Amino acid sequence: MLAAVAALAVGCSADDGRSETDDTVTSSAAESSAREPGRVRLVNLGDSFASGTGVRPLVEDSPIFCLRSSRNFAHIVAAEDDYDLVDVSCAGADTGDLTEAQYEGVPPQLDALDGDADVVTVMIGGNNEGTYGRAIDLCGQAAEADPLGAPCTERHGRDLIDPVDRDIYPAVREALRQVRSKAPSAEVLLIGYPWLVPEDGGCYPEMKVAAGDLALLRRLQVAVNDAGRRAADEEGVRFVDMLPPSAGHDACAGPQRWIEPMTASGPGRLHPNAAGQEAIAEQVRKALAG
């Protein structure tokens, strides 16, 4: 794979692993539009999990609505392995934003693929059909009246799970097909989403989900994960499964969490914190070295 072209690692600054957000921006030596001869070019596509929403500082001159962190997993990988980086990930993106402008001044993400990419990382699908946001909203409302039961499962279970195979799977597969078409010689990685909630117990109200509805949210995550894996397999893309390594690091895991809870301040709620982005970077690097 790409292990042979990896260069000396460059260390990243450490912190307490929490989500940090302010208006500070920074430039990134890893992000460049002009390729240096002999260096691997990494292009990062995707949504807020890919952009590093909630982890400061932001990339200088990046679109403010994209909340693109200079410490997202792609920046970490590029720094560690001395890659050229083109990062066009953007908060709120769904698969349609790969081919259509998401905001004024934010071109389609696939425009970043000019045939010069060696590696393409893609983390997308969770915003299609409002999948995760809708589930959290509906289950949060239901939990207010019955925090110990399973009100969301009873009212919305099928409505949340059914669209995954019907809508998300084909959309992600088509997105990967288009990435492959634009970057036929690149190694393409689809990164799955880490666990948001634990298997049992919960941490209401930090995560406003009824105890009996944790299983529903986890089934939803498994369904999205499996849809991504199938789409990746069918398009010749490597799938980076974040569910196994993120076990025990969900939003209820206290100091060990990789996901910020609903009570966190700023846009980092329900998103990977700095430790979570580092964990994703580690799995991406393992996949590239394998």
From TrEMBL:
Q: What is the lineage of its organism?
A: Bacteria, Bacillati, Actinomycetota, Actinomycetes, Mycobacteriales
Q: What is this protein called?
A: Lipase 2
Report the transmembrane regions from the record: none
Q: What class of enzyme is it?
A: hydrolase
Q: Which domain of life is it from?
A: Bacteria
| Keywords assigned | Disulfide bond, Hydrolase
Identify the InterPro entries for this entry.
Answer: SEST-like, SGNH_hydro, SGNH_hydro_sf
Instruction: Please list the GO terms describing molecular function.
Output: triacylglycerol lipase activity
Q: Which part of the chain is the SGNH hydrolase-type esterase domain?
A: 45-279
Asked if Disulfide bond is a keyword of the record, the answer is yes
List the active-site residues: S48, H271
